Amino acid sequence: MPPMSTAPIHRPEFHTLFFNCSHTSFKCPTTTTTATCTMAMDSRFSSTVNNNNNNNNNNMKKKEEEVSVQLSKPLIPKVENLRSNNIQFDRLQPSDEELVRENRFEFGQFVAREAVLDEEYWTAAWLRAECHWENRTYERYVDNFKRKFADQEFNALKRRCKVQNVESCACIITVKKEQKNVKRSILKSVVGTLDMNIRYLLQGETFPGERVKAPLFLSIRRTPPSRYGYIANLCVAKSARRQGIASNMLYFAVEAAKSNGVTQVYVHVDRNNRPAQILYQKIGFEIVETANSRLLTEETYLLRLQT
After folding, report:
1. What b/e string do you get for 151-163 counting C-beta neighbours within 10 Å, with b at 16 or more?
2. Which of 121, 228, 266, 280 is catalytic?
């Protein structure tokens, strides 16, 4: 039998940390422990130790690979932006033969219809940015603000028009009528825009927004009498105003709502915007006198048109 001996072993322990999937390790020693064990001093011990070291190295490599694989995955999911990278800002306005649309309304040198192309949606969003910042040109970085506003409105507009369930939204635009031997880009062709929304009144409402503090769980009356149209974001390019574009777009939008079985159309107007109030009243809109008190603080009128 081989001789037996007792020997102290000092084993400092290390913990290996990995950051950002890199192979660089940071070692921090823990408290050194002293252990006494009895060993048989023969060749089998050395082979056993070597095997254990090899197993430990293999296990560490496997752990490193597992950690690397797990950390290589993105922690935050990518949010897809609805803005298409294929938007061509110099794209020419398509001809009437290329756009076969049933609903269109021609007046003078213009045509009102629903937006079809992404470039038309983006130009509509840019017109809204122009109108929003029209009286604030003195501010610094106004062009950057308008571009950011247009991008955000484009994304929101595509979302609203994409969801076509019980409630729907349509972006109506006015474009310059096609002329022989004249080619225009979409950016220069679209001169007006508005949104026509088809919605439902909440239970107990007689007009939109009547219930200022609606319960958390409140049903929507999805019946024909509770269906209404709502107009928003009406604007016309500054260079194309005073040509009847706004009134004709409103007429087209109201007719489109009537074809969907809507009997009431609403719109909010700023109390200080007298020209807009006159425009809507010429179409047939009337102020809702019983509107809630919140509109008083917002300095806004609610107008209604009975179709």
Report:
1. bebbbebbebbee
2. 280
